[in-house]
Amino acid sequence: MPTTQLRGFLIGLLSIAMLLCMNSALNSTAHAQSKKKAVAPSVAKPRVAVLYFDYSGNDEEMAFLRKGMAQMLVTDLSANEDLQIVERIALEAVLKELKLGRTKSIDPSSRNKIGKLLGARYLVTGGYFQFRKNLRVDAKIIDVERGTTKSFAAESSPDDFMKIEAELTRKLRTELIKLNKAQAKSPTKPRKVAKRKKTAKVAARTVARYGRALDALDKGKKKVAASELETVTHEAPHFKPAVDDLRVLLR
Q1: Which terminus, N or C, of the chain has the lesser number of Cβ atoms within 10 Å?
Q2: pLDDT (mean) for 16-22
Q3: Nearest-angstrom CA–CA distance, 154 and 168
Q4: Which backbone phi and psi does 156 adopt, to 5 degrees?
């Protein structure tokens, strides 16, 4: 084959190869863009802070229920992957910073400061009191950005605080997920949460003693905390939060 014809033949092959490469690149880009459009935008998990509930009674022992209840709610709400729950220890740090560690109630102005420092979109707060022969807990979710609230309550015998806490957890989880879906640009399907096993009764005063143990831990009094936890686990051997905390403390 003459040199001129060979050169023309090679140039033709090179042109065809370049066209094929360009076509492949265009197809890959189009496929990637199509795939990107098909994926729904991710929705940030709402950051939720569970505050200590207000208590205006005179029973000093029951005042510690607020810490025990907060820890239980944090643990149970954290089981849902659609929510981002602030750890109680982070709340403690903010309360100390604002010098609110000893107060029995938190005013609206302080709540807003706490929410901002914790970076929380939603605050869970409320109060509890004796209602006839029952213990009643009033809870509410505060949307920090909008200033709106959603309230509900739970009550039962003081001898069965687990029933109250389980009802509160269910209502809080349902409402928080609903609020998050309303804020999302595109609807998201909430993840399934395993049904909570029915637990034996635990008295409110036992949970209050658990709260006293947490308070001792917050103050660095590990021996006092261990003693309180041992008492709690003796009264309620099936009360998992106290059992787990005592095991960690005794390591």
Answers
A1: C
A2: 49
A3: 6
A4: -170, -175
What is the amino acid identity at position 35?
Answer: K
Percent of the chain beyond pLDDT 90? 58
Distance CA 249, CA 178 (A): 37
pTM (whole model) above 0.90: no
Tell me the C-alpha distance between 152 and 31, whole Å. Answer: 49
Beta-ladder partners of 149: 142
Tokens of 103: 């107060």
- Residue 87 clears pLDDT 80, i.e. is over it: yes
Which range is least confidently modeled, 34-48, 58-72, 123-137? 34-48
**Strand pairing report for 47-50 and 84-85:** parallel
Structure tokens given for 232: 């709690």
Domains defined along the chain, listed by start: 47-199 (3.40.50.10070)
Question: Would you list the DSSP string of the chain?
Answer: --HHHHHHHHHHHHHHHHHHHHHHHHHHHHHHHHHHHHSPPP-PPPEEEEPPPB---S-HHHHTHHHHHHHHHHHHHTT-TT-EEPPHHHHHHHHHHTT-TT-SS--HHHHHHHHHHHT-SEEEEEEEEEETTEEEEEEEEEETTT--EEEEEEEE-TT-HHHHHHHHHHHHHHHHHHHHHHHSSS--PPPP-PPPPP-----HHHHHHHHHHHHHHHTT-HHHHHHHHHHHHHH-TT-HHHHHHHHHHT-
